[in-house]
């Protein structure tokens, strides 16, 4: 079999991070690629997150994986003192691929999970000291882009403007935050259209304000507003390996509804 790079960027990915594989008759058997992201906010203990994806026939997977891991080592060498992980994301029913990665040293110790919780039927908590609870200003494209940029700093996959526009049209859309001196310390986006259920799309708390119940207070403040409109439950998606997200779910009494995706990974550094 033969490996090659594309002649130009592939789906926006630099050509050196993409590999095609073909058999000895030069019939293409598939491809794989690698994407580096720095997740200082989502995974501060392992901020270097290297995502790999393989779309190939089984006979070509090992060769592609070897090439991608070699490329990951090259990338890692640029950040010798930074811890991270190499990971992929699979559907829970992709048993053959989950087995393939596990047999090659990946551990399935992280997953994207959907959780559900009952909106607390209590008055909204008092905002943190010297903070104001307010709607996020979204009157202009610049304000919306700035809000998305702040949210996406704390996400593995970015919220796009198209997705944001769609959510803003939903009956239960809310963008709220705690602000101090006009600067956000925490913000939340909720949406949905079902009569009894909303979706917690995203909530973040700036690092210096974590571990003080700010995230939970913001969710409860938004929940009080939704309760007034007849909403009783909320669903959201979290990563099981993300400790702050799981602690927030526990504080809200949430239960796991289903596994959305499996994230086989191996730690580096």
Quick synopsis:
The protein is of the alpha+beta class and 269 residues long. The protein has helices spanning 58-77, 95-103, 141-152, 161-168, 214-227, 243-251; strands at 2-4, 18-22, 28-38, 48-56, 84-87, 111-118, 132-135, 174-180, 183-191, 197-205, 233-239, 255-262, 265-268.
Structural summary, described in words:
With 269 residues, the protein is of the alpha+beta class. The protein folds into two domains: 2-87, no CATH class; 120-231, Aminopeptidase. The chain contains six helices and 13 strands. The strands form two sheets. Strands 7-8-9-10-11-6-12 form a seven-stranded mixed β-sheet, with helices on one face. Strands 1-2-3-4-5-13 form a six-stranded mixed β-sheet, covered by helices on one side. A hairpin with a 5-residue loop joins strand 2 and strand 3 (28-38). It is elongated. The mean pLDDT is 92.
């Amino acid at each position: 079999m033969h490996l090659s790079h594309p002649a130009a960027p592939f789906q926006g990915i630099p050509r050196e991070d993409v590999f095609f594989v073909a058999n000895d008759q030069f019939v293409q058997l598939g491809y794989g690629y690698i994407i580096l992201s720095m997740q200082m906010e989502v995974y501060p203990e392992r901020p270097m997150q290297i995502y790999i994806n393989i779309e190939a026939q089984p006979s070509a997977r090992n060769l592609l994986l070897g090439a991608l891991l070699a490329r990951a080592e090259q990338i890692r060498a640029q950040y010798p003192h930074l811890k991270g992980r190499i990971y992929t994301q699979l559907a829970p029913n992709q048993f053959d691929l989950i087995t393939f990665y596990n047999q090659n040293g990946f551990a399935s110790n992280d997953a994207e999970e959907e959780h559900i919780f009952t909106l607390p039927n209590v008055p909204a908590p008092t905002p943190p000291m010297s903070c104001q609870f307010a709607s996020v200003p979204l009157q202009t494209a610049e304000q919306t882009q700035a809000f998305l940029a702040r949210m996406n700093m704390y996400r593995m996959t970015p919220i796009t403007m198209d997705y944001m526009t769609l959510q803003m049209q939903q009956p239960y859309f809310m963008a709220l935050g705690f602000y101090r001196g006009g600067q956000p310390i925490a913000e939340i986006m909720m949406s949905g259209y079902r009569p009894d259920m909303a979706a917690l799309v995203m909530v973040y708390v700036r690092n210096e304000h974590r571990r003080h119940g700010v995230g939970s207070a913001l969710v409860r403040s938004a929940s009080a507003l939704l309760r007034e409109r007849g909403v009783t439950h909320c669903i959201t998606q979290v990563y099981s390996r993300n400790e702050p997200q799981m602690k927030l779910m526990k504080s809200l009494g949430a239960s796991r509804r289903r596994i959305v995706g499996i994230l086989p990974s191996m730690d580096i550094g």
